[in-house]
Amino acid sequence: MKKIYSIAMIAACAMMVFSCKNNGKGNEEVPAPAGEAVEAVENAAKEGAKAVENAAEDAADRVDEALEKLGDIVPYTSVEVKPTFNGGDADAFVKYVQSNLKYPESALENNESGKVTVNFVVDANGKIQNAKVVKGVSEALDAEALRVIQNAPAWTPAKQGGKNVPVTYSIPVTFAIR
Questions:
Q1: Residue ranges per domain, the chain?
Q2: What digits encode the pLDDT tens for the residues 76-134?
Q3: 3-state SS, residue 53
Q4: Phi, psi at residue 167, to the nearest 5°?
Q5: What is the CATH T-level fold of the domain 90-175, as seen in this structure?
């Protein structure tokens, strides 16, 4: 940052020299030593301007890279192409979950039922990550919902701008005693 400030100061000095270089006498010749000084300041100003431009371009590139990495880390909530599960959509996943649930014995004994809401991320490789219960019913039912979701096969990942991206999902897992 100090370097950019110094270069900006040199550029400002060069501008002052340009405006004052002939004491307002038009295009008359400047004496040799003064002309060399003006030329040196002009060159320094050009180099300073180029350095500032390069620094700005480098900073912009770093910001773009950081945003791209952030897109790989922070899951999307809305995407151009949604992820699919076994060739279907989120409903196909709900059917998979329901067909693979095993009602916990302790929950049956305690007559526990209800909806467990689980959030998770389908990552850029289609794997389920960061599954967590956001609205639970009981420890036994919550654990069973997480077990089935975490053990699910991979999805076909979501796409944004032609690139695989992570996306957040939330599904209700219904437990009903029959």
A1: 2-73, 90-175
A2: 777 888 889 988 877 889 899 999 999 999 999 999 999 999 999 999 999 999 999 99
A3: helix
A4: -140, 145
A5: TolA/TonB C-terminal domain (3.30.2420)
